[in-house]
Fold this protein.
Amino acid sequence: MAERHLLLAGGGHAHVEVLRRLAARPLAGWRITLLTRERHSPYSGMLPGVAAGLYHPEQALIDTRALAARAGAALVIDSVEGLDPGARRLHRASGDPIAYDLLSIDTGATPDVSRLPGAAEHALPLKPIDALLPRLQGLDAEVRPGQAVALIGGGAAGFEMSLAMAARLGPRKVRIVLVAGESGLLPGVPAVLRRRAAAALAARGVALHEGANVSEVTEGALRFEERPALAADVVLLATGASPAEWLARSGLVRDGRGFLLVEPTLQAVGQPAIFAAGDVASLLPEPAPKAGVFAVRQGPVLAENLRAAAEGRPLATYTPQQDWLVLLSLGDGHALGTRNGLVFGGRWVWWWKDWIDRRFMARYQAAG
Ligand SMILES: Cc1cc2nc3c(=O)[nH]c(=O)nc-3n(C[C@H](O)[C@H](O)[C@H](O)COP(=O)(O)OP(=O)(O)OC[C@H]3O[C@@H](n4cnc5c(N)ncnc54)[C@H](O)[C@@H]3O)c2cc1C
């Protein structure tokens, strides 16, 4: 039988695990391609540590070329621009469409700059994370003492990045503001953790602004409907995720926000030859949060289901965990965390987080 083609679109957290497993156990009779935008896939858990100067950037980057080579996969550096599920072809920015027999999508999501007036012109989204590091280096040269850097978004990414900015720019007398908006700081975590998080911000000189959403970003300021404006020379956006535009033209079934609806098998609804995982996907019957931990946990199920689909065997189902370990870096070698309602913090929590993150990275950086 002619060799068939498994196409992996995006080098996200689930696909690096698919490649690792393919390296350990090749898929007979199948050719594999990884098409992704950047040669290096950033590991989100360590990015605030990179921003704070606790890690070198390369410690948080997975080399997809080496990983693909170990899995016997071809690497194509390009950007997905569209899909024709009927013809089983993926369209890309530069080059002919790529035909596939099985497609898996793990291309992530980006903050939505379209819903906040002025954000597209005056704010830097934290995603795509592969573009964040050069942006941070630009900031070092740009900001001066007395200026203010504002983070919009009170979730884990905004919280950790505001503290990373405090560690990076605080010594240069740059003011850091975290604007957590109406949903407040770290929605969904235990109240004790929220209180400790607010105290950690105050102790590190980060001003917390809660209770009102930004209505407009202008040059040098954040505006609110019923509150005075806040000075902000640099604005970083860590608000909720939005789907890539090409998904709307793909003909695939999407949820109300535009993310790909997937069955518990991680198959796109009505499309047995298309799988999706991570932030790009919206799981049925209950969507999982858009967080790296879920993309990571979907990796093994995705890997096994791609193999099962290729070999014509029944598929397994993915059930999201109901409780998970949350570890938040405070930017200075301390961390806060929660699991099963327990809240903890201190230097040892940072050591624990550091150990988990380094161990994760080592799986994908192994030489050979
Ligand atoms: C600063 C920051 C810190 C965070 N910290 C945490 C944390 O501590 N814990 C946690 O659980 N979550 C964290 N998150 C959230 C986390 O980053 C995401 O939930 C996670 O990255 C989603 O993984 P993914 O596999 O869906 O996609 P991603 O990790 O975003 O990977 C997508 C991949 O696809 C590629 N790609 C994207 N578009 C295209 C395209 N059109 N064509 C080809 N390739 C494409 C990208 O280059 C990338 O390789 C953080 C986010 C940020 C911004």
